[in-house]
Amino acid sequence: MERLLLAALALCFGAARAEAQSPRPFTTYRQWHGETRLHARLEYAAGAVRVSAARPTELYRMDLLYDGERYEPISDFDASTTAVALGLQPAGEGGLRVVSRNQLRQTAAVTFSPKSDLSLAVTLGAADADLELGGLRLTDLDLQAGASRATVRFSEPNAARCRVASLRAGAAELTVLGLGNSRCDRIAFEGGVGRVTLDFGGTWASNSRVEVKMALGEVTLRLPRQVGVRITPDKFLASFDPQGLLRQGTSYLSPGYDQAARHLDIDVTTAIGNVGVEWEDGGER
Amino acid sequence: MRACKRLLAGVALVALAMPASAAASAGVDPTGARTLNLVHGFWTLMSEVSGHAASDSAAQVAQPEPRAIPPAQSGGPTVSLDDLSQPTAVEAQLRAALRPRGGGLRLTVPHGTARLGDFSIASNESMPGHLLVVQGTADVFGKLLGNLVTVGGDVVLHPGGVVSGDILTLGGEVRDQGGEIGGEVRSFRSTSVLRVPVQTAAAAAPSAIDTVFRRAAGVVGVFLTLSALGFGLVLFGRPNLEVVSDTVSHSFGRAFTTGLLGQILLLPTFGMLVVGLILSVVGIVLLPFVVVVYALLVVVGGLGGYLAVAHAMGETYTRRRLALGAMLSPNSYRYLLVGLGVLAALWMAWAVFGWVPVAGELIRGAAILVTWLLATAGFGAALLSRAGIRENFAGRLIPPEALTDEYLWATPQFGVSAAKRPGSRTPTRGL
């Protein structure tokens, strides 16, 4: 009886639903042919995007669901420079459709080979991004986020030495987790308005220098205990809470900084807002 | 006969209700899991039906007999498969090229071949150039030295199969069973390339009568909508509406000037508000709400003001009719209907005569201008009267009794100018 009822209802509503506008699926990938290096540029205008490591047989892959009337996929590989451009760009009418949140929610799953050195540049528009970069061979990272909410994770140690990670955010909420696993010599963050959380957890294999510049907003630095940390704040109308750090001149040092095997030097420049310090285990040092 | 029908209906109802009641009697489900299952089942079934509907529409295109598509004559449809990095552009080219034409399907693929229906490259075969397969599956056992595009079909790359260039599927997917692809794979699982474009009479330019009816329906629709909103306003905010309406009547000039200034200052005010909230840092959290509330206030101010203007117009008209001895019921509902009717009449004139060259545009311009003037005055009145809270500009500050001659003679008050006694001289204190 229930099935009959369901069938009747489904027949009534099903046809209408089939006619409704639905997101268009698009897939692009390239087989891995022994490439040792890949320059990847990911531009994602709007929607949710997830980045992670690919299957070993593929150099990259992007599975996309997008609004075909307003956007078009980017998928261009240049064999001479081993560079690929992926993503989603506005087309046609542009803008965001607001008729139904679920109906035309754009999603993208982008993966890159764990076998090739990866130079990654990501530009996000109005996006909800989750970038899992652990397990890749990341040599440098350039992230630009507009009005986005982005989480960058290094759940596993980076398999290559990373030269620099440059993160820039407009009016965004950015969380970077496990920066110790990134193996980046230099980490730079530049933000306009919003909230940023930098988690320096993970395995630190070398010293690192971090620059944080924030105009308006809240910066939270989550620090590990096993690394010697020096924070040099430069603030205008901002507060700085040096929880558990010892002041030395214009800098704040973690106890035992000089004896630590690895050093983490953080320069924080902020105009208006708040700079907070948290320790990985949550307690005071 | 009727009794028989009733009996049948009763039996049917009992039959429908029986299994459900039997199931219900088996045990009460306090967790509501049964309901959840029912809903889930409904959605699953609906998805299946939708999926079938979609796949059926795709399958409506009959599988053609495999054959080569002959090249088009000079100037005929041509699709270049040299560069597949812009898949949507290639799709648009194919859509145009595969549009049904008289004389059968003909298509030129520079540096390549085009096939209709299923096509396969044998394992001992090496095929130079690009390949386009329309409405068929491309099975690659051998080598294709170029790009491969399928429309309405999959690409199956068998072990040992090689495609040296890129692959693009429109309305299909790539099934890589162990082959080698030298280039990039791009795959749209749905496409409108093979869909026959609907060319109906509706696409033709509508006639003047159609236009008149469509516009008139639009005007009536807007009139009804505004009437409904106005009735709601009268029902729930009558005092405020009356104050705004009186403000328009008594201080039209001020209301219009204020409305104009208000319109000019809308964006700067909004900008200042946003910047202020951002600077306060804590206010950033409130930003989305403030944006919504501000937009809502502007809409309410504009719409409410416009309705108040309609109310004022209707009131003026009705009172004049009453003064002439007409037997009418003076109430806000009537005022609103009359006022909105007058405003709608202007637009109705455009609906009827809008198709007339020049005159139609003039009427439309006049309608837009008048509507804007009145809406601006209404918006201004709403601002002046603080949405009907402040009565300064509505001519309501002096109580009615203060306006009688007797009151003015007996107790002249500060701020109320006394009228002169009719006669020769001014009365003097002590006389």
Could you describe the 3D structure shown?
The complex is a heterodimer of chains A (285) and B (431). Chain A is mainly beta and 285 residues long. Chain A has one helix at residues 2-19, and strands at 24-31, 37-53, 58-66, 71-78, 83-90, 107-112, 117-132, 137-145, 149-153, 162-177, 184-199, 208-223, 228-241, 246-248, 251-253, 263-279. Chain A is built from one helix and 16 strands. Chain B has helices spanning 2-25, 33-59, 87-97, 208-250, 252-279, 287-323, 332-353, 359-384, 405-410, and strands at 67-68, 112-116, 119-121, 126-128, 130-134, 138-140, 143-145, 148-151, 155-157, 162-163, 167-170, 174-176, 180-181, 184-188. Chain B contains nine helices and 14 strands. In chain B, helix 4 runs parallel beside helix 8, helix 5 packs across helix 8 (359-384) and helix 7 runs antiparallel to helix 8. With 431 residues, chain B is α/β, with parallel strands linked by helices. Chain B is elongated. Classes of the chains: A mainly beta (285), B alpha/beta (431). The A-B interface holds A 1-3, 6-7, 9-11, 13-15, 17-18, 24-31, 33, 72-73, 75-77, 91, 193-194, 216-218, 272-274 and B 16, 19-20, 38, 41-42, 45-46, 48-50, 53-54, 57, 85, 87-88, 173-174, 176, 180-190, 278-279, 281, 284.
Lay out the secondary structure:
The complex is a heterodimer of chains A (285) and B (431).
Chain A: H1 2-19, E1 24-31, E2 37-53, E3 58-66, E4 71-78, E5 83-90, E6 107-112, E7 117-132, E8 137-145, E9 149-153, E10 162-177, E11 184-199, E12 208-223, E13 228-241, E14 246-248, E15 251-253, E16 263-279
Parallel strand pairs in A: 2-5, 2-6, 2-7, 7-8, 7-9, 8-10, 9-10, 10-11, 11-12, 12-16, 13-16
Antiparallel strand pairs in A: 1-3, 3-6, 4-5, 13-15, 14-15
Chain B: H1 2-25, H2 33-59, E1 67-68, H3 87-97, E2 112-116, E3 119-121, E4 126-128, E5 130-134, E6 138-140, E7 143-145, E8 148-151, E9 155-157, E10 162-163, E11 167-170, E12 174-176, E13 180-181, E14 184-188, H4 208-250, H5 252-279, H6 287-323, H7 332-353, H8 359-384, H9 405-410
Parallel strand pairs in B: 2-5, 3-6, 4-7, 5-8, 6-9, 7-10, 8-11, 9-12, 10-13, 11-14
Antiparallel strand pairs in B: 1-2
